[in-house]
Write a structure and sequence with these properties.
5 helices, mainly alpha
Length: about 70
Amino acid sequence: MATISELAERENLDNSYVAKVMRLTLLAPDIVEMILDGRQPEAMTWRGLAKGFPMEWVEQRRLWGIG
């Protein structure tokens, strides 16, 4: 897929939802591992992640008190 819109259309999803999910690829690898293992901080919710977070991995860890 060349664009989020193409991907959303192909998967029959809303563009904004796909954009929010794609943003998760910017999470630090150790944070992704924590989420997959179910060890993420209690304050880290889908709603919070969907609102946005810092792109810098150090700032992500600081935001959620990791490290």
